[in-house]
Amino acid sequence: MLIGCPKEIKNHEYRVGLTPASVRELTSRGHGVLVQQGAGAAIGLSDEQYLAAGATQAADAAEVFAKADMIVKVKEPQPQECAMLRPGQILYTYLHLAPDPEQTAALVKSGAVCIAYETITGVGGGLPLLAPMSEVAGRMAIQAGAAHLEKSKGGMGVLLGGVPGVPAAHVVILGAGVVGTHALQMAVGVGARVTVLDKNVDRLRQLDLVFGNRISTVYSTTHSVEEAVLDADLVVGGVLIPGAAAPKLVTRAMIARMKKGAVVVDVAIDQGGCFETSHATTHAEPTFVVDGVVHYCVANMPGAVARTSTFALNNATIGHAVALADKGWKAALRDNEHLKNGLNVCEGKVTYAAVARDLGYTYVNPDSLLG
């Protein structure tokens, strides 16, 4: 199979779908890899390293899309990339379709086989291809929140950890999954006062055993969310329903009653966001203000630490890339139920139930397409 890796074109996106090491995994098994010139240059991965790993070089993205049997990317294809996809071509990347009707329509129109990293499941549960970027985003959420609490960036002028004689800031974390746990570790590490909310009492119990009286764990209800948010200096939204639009846990009315100069970081923005006031922003213009509250809603947060993120992501994605290349998509999905869960759009049909429900498509069971 010929695998193509184009350069990412989303705003301030410097990650790359394949590292030279991943290229070598594929070429050592007899596959061809076509990498766009300069695809990894921004994070120190030179064209020479890709060539040494066995790749060939393409002058532009059009050549990659025209020739490759499978496209491996990081972020969802932009409109001009969707237009280059063709029927039967495999697209293997993050998609986040539920809040994105335009992209979904373009992928349906393309006839391509679209496999989303974020809905591939793992043997022990969880979402192993989403996890590494959730780890990065959770940690970055505290960095971003701390920075934007500074007065010069529109915040109230509060130091997260405080200083002797001055109380620490109150960080509220919505969701105790991968994002929430890594945000929690960072917030505790800088000495903030931390409250984490979740509906999974067992998960709250685990966190309590690890962190003890350094954090407060609270069962998530409308009342408890409101109570915590109104007292918060920084709120991190890290809730997820796999493949579906994120629930709006924080209403506009709650935002209006928050402290002026407080910051919200919506890590769930890739799935539409968990704050009613959220809309996606970019690294170029990361924030906006609603009712005096600073909103940080960058849709590709890990792109800011692109080198770390690229290697962490490739560790998770290369195994399935090899399976798809070795077996072809039908056999690979038949053999692996977890990989099959990644199939979101296929040959003009929507094959992920949550996406079909949220966007009004007829759901088609992927088994009907696998022969």
**CATH fold type of the largest domain:** Rossmann fold
How much strand content do the residues show?
A: 15-25%
The number of helices is 14
Mean pLDDT: 97
Let me know the number of strands: 15
Tell me the helix content: 25-40%
Order of helices and strands: EHEHEHEHEHEHEHEHEHEHEEEHHHEEH
Write the CATH architecture name of the largest domain: 3-Layer(aba) Sandwich
- Terminal Cα span: 20 Å
Overall geometry: globular
Largest sheet: 8 strands, mixed
Secondary structural class: alpha/beta
What does this structure look like?
The chain is of the alpha/beta class and about 375 residues long. The protein folds into 2 domains: about 1-120 and about 305-370, NAD(P)-binding Rossmann-like Domain (Rossmann fold); about 135-300, 3-Layer(aba) Sandwich (Rossmann fold), CATH 3.40.50.720. The protein has helices spanning about 20-25, 45-50, 60-65, 80, 100-110, 130-150, 180-190, 200-210, 220-230, 250-255, 305-325, 330-335, 335-340, 355-360, and strands at about 1-5, 30-35, 55-60, 70, 90-95, 115, 170-175, 195-200, 215-220, 235, 265, 285-290, 295, 345, 350. The strands form 2 sheets. The chain has an 8-stranded mixed beta sheet with strand order 3-2-1-4-5-6-14-15, with helices on both faces. Strands 9-8-7-10-11-13-12 form a 7-stranded mixed beta sheet, with helices on both faces. Strand 1, helix 1 and strand 2 form a beta-alpha-beta unit. Helix 6 packs across helix 7 and helix 11 crosses helix 12 (about 330-335).
